Amino acid sequence: MSVEQTPVQRADFDQVMVPNYAPAAFIPVRGEGSRVWDQSGRELIDFAGGIAVNVLGHAHPALVSALTAQANKLWHVSNVFTNEPALRLAHKLIDATFAERVFFCNSGAEANEAAFKLARRVAFDRFGSEKYEIIAALNSFHGRTLFTVNVGGQSKYSDGFGPKITGITHVPFNDLAALKAAVSDKTCAVVLEPIQGEGGVMPAELAYLQGARALCDANNALLVFDEVQTGMGRTGNLFAYQHYGVVPDILTSAKSLGGGFPIAAMLTTDALAKHLVVGTHGTTYGGNPMACAVGEAVIDVINTPQVLAGVHARHDLFKARLEQIGKQYGIFTEIRGMGLLLGCVLSDAFKGKAKDVFNAAEKENLMILQAGPDVVRFAPSLVVDEADITEGLDRFERAVKALTQA
């Protein structure tokens, strides 16, 4: 039996939704691979990837199969019981990383919340109540819960919600001297993104991460890597820490982990995990069988030499063409990032106009992103077809041409 659906349009958003978002003027209704169709049947190429989420594009057969198979078996049982997909996915994450223990939840913010709570609990248990300070980077982004938004180094997101959570310090990113000056015997954790995503697609320098690791070791503090945006093959390694060769104590993953289905994970070691005893932390939906079944399919597809090598090859295609566009039209000063997380830094003449570039691209039937007002961001599917890359960047060049000649 089919239920007749009520017709909706973009104007409905402004009537029924809380106005904390300003979505584009069209509504996507169907996707396949790196193509999306809106209500009018218009076809767009997707280089936004749901903000680095749709790691295998839209409606990937392996993910559709995993989801539908699990949907016919078991949807939810809570954490009063365990389930097979959660245990299988945990094994796969442990086998592929430094981790020995996994905590599943639903979003990057929740994974970071768990990571920060774990760091404070470990310090409390081992050293007492005075060791609770967290050091994070300016321009970082770690989520929207009250704790994570305060750890994030962008006050525009944390102001106006009452008293700030205490014990959090922010220092400039990639500035080891500033980090060293901030760390003390009260520091319980240093929290870093290997590549700042929302902060403008800014990669960490190797010496910076190595120095952070050494400072944490010397001060009995934990090193936490937020890999919500960089994880699951996005950089050409399964996780960015593997590219740098710097191993954290705690790692958070979300976004690409479910390929579009909500799931997140906090990864850590046996020694640290034992501090979260029964009752200290929880989540209703964490480890949901459907989410974990999809997560299994994601890691099975991505964590192969062929797919990871393909990320590097696609990076080279994107970067070469974007540099050519930037030079020809004088719109970019730098193309930075790793793998298929790329940031195009706008030149002085176009500073603050990332939204204008986004709008111009949409007119050319292309979906892209921004990372702040001065950086245009690309986070496409890791398996985007070369033909789609070429056509999408042709559309992007037409958008840039129209914008620069306006």
UniProtKB/TrEMBL annotation:
Cofactor remark from the record: Binds 1 pyridoxal phosphate per subunit.
Residues that hold N(2)-acetyl-L-ornithine according to the record: R144, T283
Cofactors: pyridoxal 5'-phosphate
Any Pfam family matching the protein: Aminotran_3
CDD domains xrefs: OAT_like
Enzyme Commission number(s): 2.6.1.11
Subcellular location: Cytoplasm
Residues with PTM N6-(pyridoxal phosphate)lysine: K255
Main subcellular localisation: cytoplasm
NCBIfam families with a match to the protein in the record: arg_catab_astC, argD, PRK01278.1, PRK05093.1, PRK12381.1
Additional facts recorded: May also have succinyldiaminopimelate aminotransferase activity, thus carrying out the corresponding step in lysine biosynthesis.
Protein name (database record): Acetylornithine aminotransferase
